Structure formats: structure tokens, C-alpha cells
Amino acid sequence: MKNVIMLGPPGAGKGTQAVRLARALGLPHVSTGDMLRAAVKAGTPLGREAKRHMDAGGLVPDEVVIGIALDRIAEPDAGQGFIFDGFPRTIPQAEALDARLAAQERRITHVVNLDVPEDVVVERIASRRAPDGSVRDDDKPDAVRARMRAYRAQTEPLEGYYARAGVLRSVDGTKSMDEVYEAVKKVLG
Ligand code: AMP
Fold first, then answer.
1. How is residue 153 annotated by DSSP?
2. 72 is catalytic
3. Is 186 a catalytic residue?
4. First to last CA, the chain
């Protein structure tokens, strides 16, 4: 059983690493950002609510995100574990996740913190494009600044939270994609 969280600032490479790792381990890649973007695209009430926050670079309220994340890992394909990418992002989200897992006698087994300085991630995001060449609305400069503020204020404290739980391992995320992947695999054993 591997219940994994990829942690790190926007643009650290969490998604890239999580996708590759999930494929290698045969576990679902669970990105709350992807699920929220799908809801926005589908125009559901949840999507409309989420969009306001996402476009401004802020976090979607805990109660919304916790619901979709916990529902997702209740699905059968997550029975042997999961790779979370972009969740949890706040202490209340982490606590809700821990409580749900504990109720099933499960726990987070690994938290991989992708360590990348802020100037490097800001640079990376500025040059990031979707496969069709488009730029994510929240990759525009004002939204990026807001996302970095949200990261520092609300997400960074998770490093201490998971360090205290004894599951945090940091990886140098400034290296090449392949080098980071090798380091991540080593952390997961
Ligand atoms: P991401 O693709 O992970 O960078 O997420 C894109 C955006 O979706 C974030 O900037 C937030 O607005 C929202 N989001 C994704 N995951 C979460 C989460 N766990 N908590 C709150 N908001 C989230």
C-alpha cells in the first residue's frame, strides 16, 4: 500500500512526476486541479464556484475540495493506494484526509516535497504551455503571484505537519525531469 502526496509550489513539477509515478506503480494519479478544471469545463455548479477562486489564483474552499478528493479515493482503483497531486493544500484538508484514512486503518505513507526556489518556479510557469499551445488562465502573472502567496501562507505549513508525522522527504526539484524522477523513486523505495 502506497498512499502518496506530492507536495511543492505551483510549477515545481508535481503533475509531471505524479503522472509518471502513478503509471509505474499502477496507482491512480489524483489531481484536484484536474478534477476542478473538468468541473469548470462541464459548467457544473461546483465548477462555477471553483472558477472564481481559480482564475484569481486563490484556493477553492476546503469543504468543496475535501469532498471531491475523499470521494475519489473511495473508488475501487484507489484500494491499493494513490498519488495525490495538489491535495492537500491546507492543514484542514490534511486533517480531513488523515481522519478518513484512519477510519479505514490506512495512513499517508510518503510525502514527497519537491523543493524548488520561488524565482525558478515563477520562471517555469511563465514559459508553460498546454499541448495545444494555450496558456492556463491562472498561469498569467497576477494569478501566479496570488498562487505563490496562497502556497506560502496555506500550503507550506504542511511541510511541518508531515515532518512531525515522520513521512516527509524532500527532493531537489531543480534538477532535470529524469533526475527528479529517479530521486522520487528512491524515496518511495
Ligand atoms: P493545480 O492544477 O493543482 O495547480 O490547481 C489549480 C487551481 O485549482 C489552484 O490554484 C486552486 O485554485 C485549485 N485547487 C486545486 N487543488 C486544490 C486544493 N487542494 N485546495 C484548494 N484549491 C485547489
1. I
2. no
3. no
4. 12
Nine-digit cell string for 10: 505551483
Question: Atom 12, ligand 1: which residue's CA is nearest?
Answer: 54
The model's confidence at residue 136, banded by pLDDT at 50, 70 and 90, is confident
Which protein residue's CA is at the shortest distance from atom 11 of ligand 1?
59
* CATH 3.40.50.300 at 2-184, yes or no: yes
Angle between helices 141-150 and 118-126 (to 10 degrees): 150
The reply to whether the predicted model has a pTM over 0.85 is yes
Q: List all residues whose CB is within 6 A of at least one atom of ligand 1.
A: 10, 32-33, 36, 53-54, 59-60, 65, 86-89, 93, 138, 147
Question: Distance (Å, rounded) from C-alpha 92 to C-alpha 94?
Answer: 5
Q: Return left, alpha or beta for 3; rule: phi > 0 is left, psi -120 to 50 is alpha, else beta.
A: beta
Torsion of CA 100, 113, 154, 140, to 10 degrees: -120
The ligand 1 atom at the shortest distance from the C-alpha of residue 10 is 4
Q: Model confidence at 94, in pLDDT bands (50, 70, 90)? A: very high
Annotation marks residue 14 as catalytic: yes
The answer to whether 51 and 60 are in contact (CB under 8 A) is no
